[in-house]
What we know:
Elements: H1 3-23, H2 29-44, H3 51-64, E1 71-73, H4 75-83, E2 88-91, E3 94-99, E4 102-108, H5 113-117, E5 124-128, E6 131-132, H6 140-147, E7 154-160, E8 168-173, E9 175-178, E10 182-187, E11 192-197, H7 204-217, E12 222-226, H8 235-243, E13 251-257, E14 264-267, E15 279-283, H9 290-300, E16 305-308, E17 316-322, E18 328-337, H10 354-357, H11 359-365, E19 382-384, E20 390-392, E21 401-402, H12 412-419, H13 422-438, H14 444-450, H15 454-467, H16 474-479, H17 481-497, H18 499-507, H19 511-522, H20 533-546
Parallel strand pairs: 11-12, 12-15, 15-16, 16-21
Antiparallel strand pairs: 1-18, 2-9, 3-4, 4-5, 5-6, 5-7, 7-8, 10-11, 13-14, 13-18, 17-18, 19-20
Amino acid sequence: MLLLPLLFAVGIAGGILMGRYFFTTRLDPREQKLHTMLGMIEEQYVDEVDMDSLLEQLYPKLLSLLDPHSAYIPASELQAVTEDLEGSFSGVGVSFQILNDTVNIIEVVAGGPAEKVGLLPGDKILKADSVDLTGKGASNEMVFKNLRGQKGTSVSLLIDRSTSKKPLTYDVVRGDVPVNSVDADYLLNDTIGYVKVSKFARTTYNEFHQALAGLRLDGARNFVIDLRGNSGGYMDQAILMAQEFLPKGCMIVYTKGKMPEFQSIAITEESGQFLNFPVVVLMDEYSASASEIFAGAIQDNDRGLVVGRRSFGKGLVQNQTILPDSSGVRLTIARYYTPSGRSIQKDYKAGGSDGYDLDISNRFAHGEFYSRDSIRLDESRIFYTGTGRKVYGGGGIMPDLFVPEDTTGLTSYYLQVVNAGLIQKYAYKVAQSYREVLQNARNLTQFNKVLPRDNTLLEGFVEYAAANGVPARWYYIRKSRQLILSQLKAIIARDTLGYSAFVEMLNQSDPTVAEALRALKAGESPVLIHPTEEEFVEAAKKMKQKN
Length: 547
């Protein structure tokens, strides 16, 4: 009989607790429900719970139920995630590569803290302060953690240099290190300038405009803009870049969102400085977001050619908000549309990213990388440019001139040496041997004259690979000859002359660059490469009326 009063007492106690959670706060019902659940977990759950840790796991899960690009960024990661787009970060100013469990400096940023104290390409970083950066524990994350830091702080680096018998110590005061988004700009020939843009950061437009202006002074009258591998960034930078090639009154992009402030349209206010210069844009399956805005504006306005392969297909706009605890939320707040009115966002299922993430792999499996006919176009999403050309919405930007992925030279031998990292390791070894001479080269012509001849370079590599576990198989080596030599030379150029030389060397045998050159030289195009300003404006009016 004592059981009944006990149960009654428990019921009352439970009612008090429930009342505390459900009736003492005046929150939105959805907020109240979450608040109640968290309170119950914290006070009633049988085991001790780290609520901060629990919530940090909850936030990304919550945003993952929306679309593939909305994301939660923990405070510990926010700086690293955003600094590459901000134009600079604080550190010592070196590019490095981990080879043979050792941090090898491959480039010293001009004017950066490392250059000021005398660090050189080819130096090996053994320690940062008391932290050992060698051995199997060496990782990119470890190096970033110890080399980057607050501006004005100092780090002591223990350096192994081939010309010194003893390790050297350099005390480097961390400072602002510029993050370049224009990786290379040079003349492909006397009249065609090439600019590679790797990201859309805060400083991209300024870098881009400076590159165009410099090439124009050098004689460029046509431009190839390489956006392959460029996953995007700040939308405004893409708009500013596109504006340079368009006349006054042309639409570049417009957005549609739930809130009025997320509804916008970008129209050129003045004619661009490079309006009368033919332009080709290079794209591939990794060109996304802001890259697609730029390419879409060029294509839909019948301004130039898009050459390469179908782009990624990201037509969602994110707004980044910094939360009180210094974490961040990137929330999709709008969709963007190219001037013809098409959304190039590929299909996705809310809360299910597996199929979305596998899209590139599926394209490969369907043969899309090798044949234009394998591309699955959605006939229900047809749009038209101002001159009446047919373009497609959904699933990225379709190129005007398709270039299949280059598989020339791919053999089992090549894959073996690549997977073992032997091309990079041997290239670095050669760069060390020829560094002093190669650094005096003013261009790739002089660079190639200093390097060993192709046969000597290839034979040296084959011997090195054999000594490191990959025996010579000359039938396959001959098939992969040009591919191996091209990559060896490019990496050596990068390690001695900088990243721009790396890009330039690879471009010499790049079929997509070759197709762009051919199209510009021949003037072959289904679009008006050189229309009048009046034609542009008339086309822009037609698209505005449609939208």
